[in-house]
């Protein structure tokens, strides 16, 4: 076992590495280094805790056994989970953090060592830490489970808006406060467990209700919000266990998740309270809007893969807008091959990334990095939006709501005011979709009916393979 002083120094070193990790993750070029710092910091933290002064020789085998089981599951998940399943995996991991906090809170309360605490202010503070830790952990656990279900398609993405839901939430909050006061004044562990159990049930129900009321279009915000919750849960657990590293790490994750949630809300012209209130977005896949006579609101112009290849080949400037459809079709590698081919011909190809493209923050960036698309041609919305008027062809691959002109043109639209990629300003836009179904927000897209827009229907991977083949065939014919 290592002495207390060495464990403290190890915690300080791990905390510094975690801060450096967050700094490295702020840019794609330094993200590998940031990940490495995070892994080294976590390894140091785990070793310093397991072999620290607070773990006895009797408890060591149990901890090592638990680590072996958890490590095996984590390794299996890392190898088997597809990139398209990353959002739901992240949500599932958040649920485990919340569940762990609940278990730690109950265990810490019934621990005989807790009885040794002074009966004064220190005992009250400790019990408040337990109560708040379990509360946040329970909300995080149940909310993350529902988010996992929505992201994986097991639960309908349409918001469940119960009558009087805000009054229900208020009533739940009052009950939590009342039982919190009762918990602090309970004279025995048995009575305290009853108060904790009632609060936990209310918190679990609130987590379910909160995320069920959030529509599919807000899921990127939900993922970052739950990330923040899991951080504050870890910080609360750190206070419970008097573990400085957990407090620091939890605060880092909680604050960074909160900042990310703010960025996501800004990118959707939403405020955090309106997201929690729910109501925006549906399960997706709904038919396009119809006119009064039952016909579509406009006519679309279809295009073939060969014609798409001709347009790309004749272009000087091309922008590619990836969306969740690209992730589902696993088409990012073909996209890279097309990009590589066009750039070798002298075409200026860039990618336009909307902050909420996909199902979690940075989803498209991760997919493009996996396909080895150069970082310097992957641009954020604010960097590239003004370049669309000078673009010959914009290819939209499986995106919908983030390229919807109704956000600017229709004040009555549910996405009115949401910043979008202005792809319709390019000379020609090509939208790749399986059908005319609306996006995850369930909102029709007028882009499909614009004169300079073309629709390339079908599976993105299959159609892009055809485009790549046609490009190479044209080059061979011209050669």
Shape descriptor reads globular
- What string, H for helix and E for strand, traces the elements in order? HHHHHHHHHHHEHHEHEHEHEEH
Largest sheet: 6 strands, parallel
The fraction of residues assigned to DSSP E strands is 5-15%
Helix content: 55-70%
Q: What's the number of extended β-strand segments?
A: 6
Mean pLDDT metric: 85
Distance between the termini: 72 Å
> Looking across the biggest beta sheet, what order are the strands in?
3-2-1-4-5-6
User: Could you list the spans in which at least 5 consecutive residues all have pLDDT below 50?
Assistant: 284-296
> What is the radius of gyration computed over CA atoms, rounded to a whole number of angstroms?
26 Å
Helical stretch tally: 17
User: How does the helix and strand content classify structurally?
Assistant: alpha/beta
Protein model, in words:
The chain is of the alpha/beta class. The chain is 58% helix and 6% strand. It has helices at 4-24, 31-50, 60-80, 86-110, 121-152, 165-185, 189-212, 219-241, 244-267, 272-277, 305-313, 324-329, 332-344, 363-370, 381-384, 406-409, 460-478, and strands spanning 317-322, 348-353, 378-380, 393-397, 428-433, 453-457. It has a 6-stranded parallel sheet. Strand 4 (393-397), helix 16 and strand 5 (428-433) form a beta-alpha-beta unit. It is globular and about 80 Å long. The model is unreliable at 284-296 (pLDDT under 50).
């Amino acid at each position: 076992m290592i002495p207390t002083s060495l464990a403290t120094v190890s915690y300080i070193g791990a905390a510094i590495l975690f801060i450096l990790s967050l700094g490295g993750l702020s840019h794609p070029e330094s993200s590998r280094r940031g990940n490495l710092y995070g892994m080294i910091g976590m390894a140091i933290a785990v070793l310093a805790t397991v072999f620290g002064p607070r773990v006895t020789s009797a408890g060591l085998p149990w901890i090592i056994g638990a680590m072996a089981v958890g490590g095996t599951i984590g390794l299996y998940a890392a190898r088997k989970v597809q990139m398209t399943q990353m959002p739901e995996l992240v949500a599932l991991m958040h649920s485990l953090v919340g569940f762990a906090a609940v278990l730690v809170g109950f265990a810490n309360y019934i621990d005989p060592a807790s009885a040794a605490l002074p009966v004064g202010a220190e005992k009250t503070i400790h019990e408040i830490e337990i109560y708040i830790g379990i509360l946040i952990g329970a909300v995080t656990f149940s909310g993350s489970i529902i988010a996992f279900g929505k992201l994986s398609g097991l639960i309908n993405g349409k918001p469940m808006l119960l009558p009087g839901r805000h009054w229900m939430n208020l009533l739940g909050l009052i009950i939590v406060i009342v039982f919190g006061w009762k918990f602090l004044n309970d004279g025995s562990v048995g009575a305290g467990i009853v108060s904790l159990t009632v609060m936990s049930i209310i918190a679990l129900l609130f987590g379910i209700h909160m995320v069920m009321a959030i529509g599919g279009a807000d899921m990127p915000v939900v993922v970052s919000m739950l990330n923040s919750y899991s951080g504050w849960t870890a910080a609360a657990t750190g206070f419970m266990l008097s573990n400085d590293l957990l407090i620091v790490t939890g605060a880092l994750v909680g604050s960074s998740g909160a900042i990310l949630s703010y960025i996501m809300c800004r990118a959707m012209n939403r405020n955090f309270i309106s997201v929690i209130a729910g109501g925006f977005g549906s399960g997706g896949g709904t038919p396009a809007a119809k006119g009064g006579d039952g016909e579509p609101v406009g006519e679309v112009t279809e295009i073939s893969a060969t014609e798409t290849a001709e347009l790309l080949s004749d272009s000087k400037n091309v922008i590619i807008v990836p969306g969740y459809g690209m992730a589902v079709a696993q088409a990012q590698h073909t996209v890279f091959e097309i990009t590589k081919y066009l750039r070798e011909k002298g075409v200026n190809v860039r990618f336009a990334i909307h902050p909420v493209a996909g199902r979690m923050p940075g989803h498209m960036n991760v997919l493009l990095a996996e396909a080895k698309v150069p970082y310097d041609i992957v641009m954020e919305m604010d960097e590239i939006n003004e370049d669309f008027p000078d673009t010959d062809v914009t290819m939209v691959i499986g995106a919908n709501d983030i390229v919807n002109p109704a956000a600017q043109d229709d004040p009555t639209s549910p996405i009115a005011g949401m910043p979008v990629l202005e792809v319709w300003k390019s000379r020609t836009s090509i939208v790749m979709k399986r059908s005319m179904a609306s996006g995850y927000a369930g909102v029709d897209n007028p882009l499909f009916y614009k004169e300079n827009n073309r629709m390339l229907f079908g599976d993105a991977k299959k159609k892009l393979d055809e485009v790549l083949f046609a490009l190479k065939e044209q080059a061979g014919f011209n050669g």
